[in-house]
Predict the 3D structure of the following.
Amino acid sequence: MRANPDPLRVGMVGCGRVSSKYIEGIHASDRLSLVTCTDLNPANARVVANAHGFEVADSLDALLQNDSVDIVLNLTPPHAHEAITISALEAGRHVYSEKPLATTREAARRVVRTAASSARLLACAPDQILTGTMRAAREMIDAGHIGNPVAATAFMMNHGHEQWHPDPGGYYASPGGGPFYNRAGYYVGALINLFGPVVEVSAMGRTTWPHREIKTGPRIGELIPVEVPTHISANLAFENGAIATVVTSFDVWNTSLPRIEIYGSDATAVLPDPVTNNGSVLILPRDGGEAQNFPMRPSQYPVAGTGIRDLASAVDNNGQPILDAGLAYHIVDIMESVHDSMTQGRTQQIESSCRRPELGRLAS
Ligand SMILES: NC(=O)c1ccc[n+]([C@@H]2O[C@H](COP(=O)([O-])OP(=O)(O)OC[C@H]3O[C@@H](n4cnc5c(N)ncnc54)[C@H](O)[C@@H]3O)[C@@H](O)[C@H]2O)c1
């Protein structure tokens, strides 16, 4: 355990929508303290800082010159992740980044290399794969309640971010846009947590509309170009032999499909949406008998911030974060390989691998 009992000080870069969840998650920990924040739009930083009583730094450089900052929390849009994470690691800070680690395999490699040579720790969202529900699902599979995992389906389908986001261009831009880049971290991440790494993918996709109309905010009515497939049907083969069908879409107005189902040799498991974490793990027995709830341990902590609280624990104990750079890189590799498969019309082997997340030390 770290000799210094003072909390690790966090500097937050990017003060948009997701920042409030992190502020709640950090306040729930006595090992973390949010001390400063910055944003390209200074008004965003001021609103957040004034509401919570921490300092505003004028720029990323100014934030990195603050010697008291131990961890940089990167909550900027995906296209900015690489540069900010690398600058923070090079300035000697541990980093917790929002997903994805970067928008291309090459960029993610540069981030991983910088982390490896920096002697600092790097962890990456989404931490929803560490929720009590997802841990219960893993316990259920590992204990053999559904037999051997055979296959899985995961569905994330909606009609795109232009319905509610005032600046949705990034969700349709290449690289890094489209429903698979935006959401695979949650669903594929959850499946990696259950099954282990992915070895092969194939995918088909289509772009249904060449433009999207912004439906809210100051740019309402503006058309934005769509540069990526917006309905993607991907098949993933896992090292443990299971295969998954993952459908992600920004083209669907409504659906009644479940979020994740796992098909075992003895029974089926139905999992709630890892993004919202609402609901429980249900087992549907092989004989058509009544569905049973798999029991979950209650958690004293909010879901938000599980990943950065675990990073603090890794710093304290000279360990590695559970959501480590290897897992984050593997997910980016899968995302880009799915897009490669769509453009090249063939199956893609996944060169990278990762450790199955080691959940043992997570506090309940
Ligand atoms: N884990 C989750 O549940 C979850 C949910 C939503 C979003 N996200 C991720 O969180 C990140 C942020 O999403 P959001 O919805 O808060 O976005 P947002 O657009 O609401 O906020 C992003 C903020 O970053 C600022 N910014 C942009 N570039 C910057 C730069 N170079 N330096 C400093 N500030 C910069 C913007 O001005 C804005 O205030 C994204 O990576 C997204 O993928 C995660």
